[in-house]
Design a protein that fits this description.
Elements lengths: L7 E12 L2 E12 L3 E5 L6 H8 L6 E6 L2 E2 L5 H7 L1 E4 L11 H7 L10 H14 L16 H13 L5 E5 L7 H16 L3 E6 L2 H5 L4 E6 L2 E7 H4 L3 H7 L9
Parallel strand pairs: 3-8, 3-9, 6-7, 7-8
Antiparallel strand pairs: 1-2, 1-4, 4-5, 9-10
Adenosine-5'-triphosphate binds next to strand 2 and helix 1.
């Protein structure tokens, strides 16, 4: 298993994040390779959201973050978008009264005026090809969509930034099994198109079938990591997170 910073798209070492006296992330080290899907599995309160928010500079952190071989001294939300990291936050945070199309465009705000409009429109077409269910709803206010479709818009908005790395915060939460299957197919397609994904989830069963590698986060610490297929067989992990059989990654 290649877990070194050389060649990794993202390498994090000894990340610490605290809310005042509450230490939420404790010395987390992880890496994501080019074109790789990596999962972070953890229960409620394990520190998953805190980890992602620190990676994009929404929370101050200590430790080392290296993106594309370059250390990121103090990540700020603007810089990380420019550096090619895009966060799809938990609970989507869409603008409910704005159309699906306008919500998607918000993901490309830093590209408007910098790139030909045709390039942005082309990316919007790609998002609609990835999530065909959104095609007929492009003009609808986002709040009129089902939860699953709103999640598709949030992911599409993340993709509109043209990230090298997409960070997904519990994207499967509350979705019906059929919608989860659609989502997992879309994530595999995103990877095939050349982007990397770091996905944090409680739904270990779903993500261990998708990711090549995974980290298990408990009380802010990485307590296990390795190949997803190996972790899926780990008795302690199965007892804690998995009720049944896991499909191996194809
Ligand atoms: P969930 O699945 O519930 O979103 P999580 O794994 O994403 O959980 P975090 O939300 O990152 O976990 O929380 C990690 C720890 O930090 C928890 O103990 C939580 O209570 C604490 N925490 C989170 N946000 C704050 C905050 N704004 N102020 C103080 N403590 C916080």
């Amino acid at each position: 298993m290649n877990d070194a910073s050389e060649g990794a798209l993202l390498h994090v070492e000894g990340l610490e994040v605290a809310y005042g006296q509450v230490q939420a992330v404790r010395g987390v080290s992880l890496s994501v390779g080019h074109h790789e899907v990596v999962a972070v599995i953890g229960a409620n309160g394990a520190g998953k959201t805190t980890l992602l928010r620190a990676l994009v500079g929404l929370l101050p952190s200590r430790g080392r973050i290296v993106l594309g071989g370059r250390p990121v001294a103090r990540p700020s939300p603007e810089d990380t978008v420019r550096l090619g990291i895009s966060l799809v936050p938990e609970r989507r945070q869409l603008f409910g009264s704005m159309s699906v199309s306008d919500n998607l465009l918000l993901g490309a705000y830093h590209r408007i005026g910098q790139e030909p409009r045709a390039a942005i429109d082309e990316d919007q077409h790609r998002v609609l090809a990835l999530f065909p269910a959104l095609r007929d709803r492009a003009a609808s206010p986002a709040r009129t969509l089902s939860g699953g479709m709103q999640q598709m818009v949030a992911i599409g908005r993340g993709l509109m930034a043209r990230p090298r790395l997409l960070l997904l915060d519990e994207p499967l939460l509350g979705l019906a099994p059929l919608v989860i299957a659609d989502m997992l197919r879309a994530f595999a397609q995103i990877q095939q198109l050349g982007q990397s994904i770091l996905i944090v989830e409680q739904n270990a069963k779903a993500v261990l079938g998708l990711a090549a590698r995974a980290y298990v986060l408990e009380a802010g610490r990485v307590v296990r990591h390795g190949r997803a297929t190996t972790l899926a067989q780990d008795p302690a992990l199965r007892a804690a997170y998995l009720g049944g059989h896991i499909e191996p990654a194809s």
